[in-house]
Amino acid sequence: MSRLIVISNRVPMPEKNGTAPAGGLAVALQAALEEHGGVWMGWSGKSSGTREPSPLHLTERGNITYAVTDLTKTDVEEYYHGFANRVLWPICHYRLDLAEYARKEMAGYFRVNRFFAQRLAPLIKPDDVLWVHDYHLIPLAAELRQMGFKNKIGFFLHIPWPPADVLFAMPVHEEIMRGLSHYDLVGFQTDHDLENFRGCLVREGFGNAIGDGLFTSNGRTFKGDFYSIGIETAAFAEYARKAANSVMVRKARQSMENRDLIIGVDRLDYSKGITQRIDAYESFINRNPAYQGKVTYLQITPKSRSEVPEYEQMQRMVAEQAGRVNGALGAVDWVPIRYINRSIGRPVLAGLYRLAKVGLVTPLRDGMNLVAKEFVAAQDPKDPGVLVLSRFAGAARALKGSLLVNPYDVEGTGNAIARAISMGLEERIERWRGMMDHLLVHDVKRWCDEFLDDLVSDQPLEGPENSRASHAQT
Questions:
Q1: How far apart are CA 358 and CA 336, in angstroms?
Q2: pTM for the structure as a whole
Q3: What range does the domain containing 394 cover?
C-alpha cells in the first residue's frame, strides 16, 4: 500500500519517546502509519481566539508526521460544540428531542471541513491513501474532490448510523448523504448501521444499492461495509493480569471488605444510560435484600464536554442520583454506590475490571462500546466475571456470552444483575471463553487491516452477507 494519511477530529500526539498514547485505536493507527509511512492530521484541541490559526504544527516521529491545527473560537463553537455535538451526535444516537439545529452552526461545520481540506492539501501526494474518521469530518472528501484530488479516500463512522426516519428529521440530511458519496469506502460498526445507511440512500432516491457491497450516488460508485472495531485483546489481557497486583488495585480489593464488585465505566454522556443503570442497581438491591451490604457498585464517569451546559447539568444529575440511592439504601458500614467523576489510568482500570464480578455496560445506544470488550479481555480465565450488556450497543452483535438487556427496562436490567452476581463458575467460564476467543481473533489490528485492504483494493466488495468484515459479528 502507498503512504497513509489519517485524518481525525483530534490527534493523539505521541510521547517524547515516540510511543502512542494508551488506547487500542491510537495503537492500531500508529502501527499502520509506521508500516506505510504517513501523516496524522487533525485539530490540536486549542483555540486561536479571534485570530486566524497559525500554519500547521508538524511533529516528526520516525516516518510519521503529526500535523495539528488550532481553530478559532467561532469555529470551535459552531463546528465542534454546535453542529457536530448538538446535531449529528444526538441524531446518530436516535435522540431527536436533543438535537438543536441552527443554520450558522451547520455553516460552521462545512466551513471547518473546508479549512481542514485546505490545510491538508499541501501534504497530499498523488498516490497517498486517506482514511477519515468519524462524524466531525463527513464533508471532508467532498471538499478534497472539489479541489481536484482523486486519491483513494475511506471513511469510518465510530458511532451508530440512524434509520431514515431519524436522519431525515435533520434539515441538512441530503448534504450529509451527498458528503458520504464522495468516499471510495464508507465503513460502519455493525450490519444494522449499514442497513440503516442503505435505507437512507435508497428510500428517497439519493442513490442505489447495486449489489456486491456497492452503492451509486451523485454520479459516483463507492463501497460500503461494516467493520466491527476491536481492542488490542492480548495486550489488554496482560495489562489486567499485571495490574491485579498493583498498589491501587490491592487497595481497592481491601476496601471492598470481601464484597462483590459491580463496575461501570463510561464517559459522561446521555447516550450511556447511566441514570437508568443506577435505577436498575437500586431495583436489584430492593428486590434482592440479601445482597444489601454484600456488593459494591463502582461507577467511573470522567467528565465530558463539561463546557457544554447540557453535560454540566447531567453531571449534577448523576451525582445527585447516586447520592439519593446511597442515602436510601446505605448503612453505617456500607456505601452502595461509589461514584468517581474523573479519569482513571488504563492500567488501573484493567485491574479493576479483573477484580469485578459483574461489568455493567448498558448504553441507550452505542456504535460499539469498547469497555465491554475490555471487561471481557481483563477477566481471570479461572474465575471470570459476567458482562451485562445493552442490546443497543454494537458490541452486542459479537459478545454472545453476555447477558443482553434492554436498558430502558429498569427491572429487567436489575434482574440481569441478580443473575450475573449469582451465576455459577462453570457457566461463567463457558460464556467468557467464547467471547474471549472471538476477541483474540477480531482484534483492533484485524479491523485496521481489513478496512485498509478493502479501501486500496480495485475489486468490488463482496456482498455484506459474505464479506470478511461480516464475520466480525459471528
A1: 15
A2: 0.93
A3: 233-441
